[in-house]
Amino acid sequence: TDAYIEIEADGNIILDSAADIVLEGTQLLSSLGAYALSASGANRPIFYLTNTADDATGPFLFLQNDRDGNGLSDNDVLGTIAFLGDDAAGNSETYGSIVGSVAEADDGNECGKIEIKVANDGTEINGITVGASSATSGEVDVILGTGLNSRTSVSGVISVAGASIVGNSAFTIANNSSNMTFDCPSNIEINADGGE
User: Residue 55: is its pLDDT beyond 90?
Assistant: First the structure.
């Protein structure tokens, strides 16, 4: 027969076990606003999601903004994974985060955006932004770095499938270690509208 256990307390509820605490069921449901896991051991706490099904699938980690079922708007944040720690003075800082948000919420034209941020001079700034275009189907744009002094290093080969490499200002292509080779089965054109 169906049954349930309800525990009511005006203070803390403590489960203290020298071995594992096992919960069996289909779902663990809670309306708590926060969960805190802490441990004093090295490389702890550890959070595992393990799928034991005999198939090709794996577990999911969902971060969902439901807005009480009223629908979302452009730029609404869907979820954030933050990396926190103290600075040298003992102040709590956010050193990095991964933020998922809504770029376009219109029905049938939904587009998402993922931002990977890192702290710089105590303030988080975007390092990588991946966003789908609401104007063009099948277009996903990627922005690397923030500011003209940012540097993107690539180990290996860069393959460009498009027809052009476009710069918004003057830029330099340089190889500081050896010769540079441009290999093309057809013509290589360099067009300049200015001086040198």
Answer: yes
